[in-house]
Amino acid sequence: MTQTRIAVSHVTKRYFLYRTALERLLHAGFGVKAKPVRAFEALNDVSFEVKAGECVGLVGRNGSGKSTLLYIIANTLAPTSGDVAVTGRLAALLELGSGFNPEFTGRENIFFYAAMLGLKREEIAARFEEIVEFAGIRDFIDQPVKTYSSGMTVRLAFSVTTCIEPEILIVDEALAVGDEAFQRKCIARMADLRSRGTTILFVSHNARSVIELCDRAILLDRGEKLVDGKPDEVIVAYRRMLYMEGARYEAYRQELKAHNGDPKPLLLARETENGSNGNGAPEAQGERQADAAYFDESLKPESMLMHEPAGAVISEPAICLIGSDGAPGSRVNMLKRGEDYIVRYRVRFEEDARDVGFSVSMQSMNGVMLGGGSLVLAEDTIPVVPAGSVIEARHTFSCRLLAGTYFASVGCSAVKEGARQPLHRIADALMFSVLPEKSYNGRGMVDFAFRSGHAVISGGAERDMKAGDQE
């Protein structure tokens, strides 16, 4: 049986919101309540377990209780009620510079911080070079940490925290201050630790990192655990909630709670007010027929996210063959590398719009943006679109993707109050596959049209050059 590393049981954290310093003193110091004191629950009855070797991501809006939960698990904050049990050596990177003495040099802080994490001096000395090399701040290692930038500080803290190979690693969005190269380096390090059995619990607003790295994800909102499940499903629920407000937001919260934190029934539900075409978007009369040879009915994007309309509604998204007249032909969702296609969708405008533009983007299965196209430059936009108009956006592209399954997202925007703003967007509007080829040995996801060959430098050969055209 897999060992439980972290067990959170009915944890609640309550704070009191005092009106004056005197009220705080009387209540906290002497238990005197001159007036009723308003309470705020940062966490409300949160329970879950994390097994050994498991990686769990915490997502949620700002103020949802993510950091508070990590502080309680790391034993730097006491819960108001409930219990937390942690089994194994824990290392936590909770905030910038925590555990460092700003007056100490980087070298001194490595020994100081690692000692607090339970390592002996000889163990730290044996790993010192690895820590400095990973942090990439060798030229400044003997300077006081107070002279470091925020990026340098988090580099050093992450390096120390992970190089000691903890049994449990907790990270609270500290990587956000690092540059992209260092963030990728950190994700690779966490993946390596995970492969060696380290339990990881981390907060991130980066959906790509959560999907790629985590076995599970947990959605917190207003201190409550709403969803605990597969990362891609949790991220979709999180994104839906992120763009909701008012009554829609409250209704969605209640729906998630009613399904006991399982988002799948809600992900499968589509916007049905105007009918559905099976792809989740409203259907209109005269939709083009599918090409039976290159259309798979099972390729339906369960992760589709329809954002709230703000003046326009997108419908009928599809990938089509190009007709002899250059217009969209039959619908397809099984594509061939090297062929040209059209992504088209209709937009119905509910209000007047100015400088209207359209966009499309392609993503991998784990949410990595692969590329896209847009019509948002001044010469490409439509100056004025009256309310009631229907426009079909068309994006012609050459499929340079290799065999696999992918998603396409579509959008429409306009200039409002001097800035370009989205009128409507559908994330993962389309799901499609690229067919495999026996005669092509490309790797990865994108065809770069490599022409691989070799040149003989010395030793002699019958031919000086041999090249294989990969097109």
UniProtKB/TrEMBL annotation:
Gene Ontology CC: membrane
GO molecular function: ABC-type transporter activity; ATP binding; ATP hydrolysis activity
Residue stretches making up the ABC transporter domain: 26-247
InterPro entries registered for this protein in UniProt: AAA+_ATPase, ABC_transporter-like_ATP-bd, ABC_transpr_TagH-like, Bact_Polysacc_Export_ATP-bd, P-loop_NTPase, Wzt_C
Region (Disordered): 266-290
CDD domains: ABC_KpsT_Wzt, Wzt_C-like
Chain coiled-coil ranges: none
A Pfam family hit: Wzt_C
Keywords: ATP-binding, Nucleotide-binding, Transport
PANTHER family: TEICHOIC ACIDS EXPORT ATP-BINDING PROTEIN TAGH
Similarity comment text for this entry: Belongs to the ABC transporter superfamily.
Name of the protein in its database record: ABC transporter ATP-binding protein
Native species: Oceanibaculum indicum P24
